[in-house]
Design goal:
Blueprint: E1 2-10, E2 20-27, E3 30-38, H1 45-62, H2 69-83, E4 91-99, E5 105-110, E6 114-118, E7 125-126, H3 142-145, E8 158-159, E9 167-171, E10 177-181, H4 183-186, H5 191-198, E11 212-220, E12 227-229, E13 238-240
Parallel strand pairs: 1-12, 2-13
Antiparallel strand pairs: 1-11, 2-3, 3-4, 4-5, 4-8, 5-9, 6-7, 6-10, 10-11
Helix pairs in contact: 1-2
């Protein structure tokens, strides 16, 4: 089983550093992918997301444990214990996807990183909901959540003062690609701009904007080789092992 992985990230204007981050590691015929978005309002959230990525990816490399909701959550908890004292005031959103050898995709997420199904015939079909005050009372269409200012208040995240359980879901891609995106992508771009971003045609305006990033992953047909692209995405914001 092979995989095609494409990371694309544009820095915004709200912080001096790009606080979107991604990590990828293949193990035999499975792969672990993680996307994170550090808070713009806390001082070293960019450093926090880098350390979370490294700890999760390095664990995946070194461990032979079966990947389940329980084993991923246990490692997230250990990562939280490891980093909470170093980053006492920082927070981050994250999404983790594990692709196994028989076509199953397990997703864990907390905060406002979203996962969607994408094919070349239409816009991204969002499969998860963000954890925000805007939709705290029930599910809402993602494009409606994007219009509400309360979406900036997260109800779940990686936060140092306490460990919060992520949501978990198994996704059937049915031949399509999986998009893992930060809120600069799904909330600040309209449908046409999202497609331009996926195709690397989107040019940012000079107006204030968040970092925006997208990790695109798809299964390859048998016999095809793994590919990893970073087209116009900063290499310092991607961790590979």
């Amino acid at each position: 089983m092979g995989f095609d992985v494409d990371w694309y990230s544009q820095q915004g204007t709200r912080t001096p550093d790009n606080r979107d981050y991604a990590g990828v590691r293949k193990r035999a015929d499975t792969i672990l992918c993680i996307v994170l978005d550090g808070s713009t309002s806390t001082p070293t959230s960019g450093e926090l997301v880098r350390e979370i990525t490294r700890e999760m990816v390095d664990w995946y490399v070194a461990s032979a444990v079966e990947i389940t909701v329980e084993t991923l959550t246990a490692q997230l908890r250990r990562t939280h214990e490891s980093l909470s004292k170093t980053f006492p005031s920082d927070t981050a959103s994250y999404g983790i996807a594990h692709f196994d050898a028989v076509g199953r995709t397990l997703v864990l997420h907390a905060g406002d990183c979203l996962f969607g199904r994408y094919d070349e015939n239409g816009p991204v079909q969002w499969l998860t909901q963000p954890h925000t005050l805007a939709n705290a009372l029930g599910e809402m269409p993602v494009d409606e959540i994007a219009k509400v200012s309360a979406r900036h208040r997260l109800t779940r995240s990686f936060r140092s003062r306490e460990f919060i359980m992520p949501d978990a879901v198994e996704i059937d891609l049915a031949g399509a690609s999986l998009v893992a995106a930060t809120d600069g992508f799904w909330a600040e771009l309209n449908l046409a701009e999202q497609l331009e971003f996926v195709d690397r045609r989107y040019q940012p305006t000079r107006s204030e904007r968040d970092d925006r990033s997208m990790l695109l992953i798809r299964y390859l047909d048998d016999g095809q080789k793994n590919r990893l692209s970073q087209r116009r995405g900063p290499s310092e914001n991607m961790y590979l092992r």
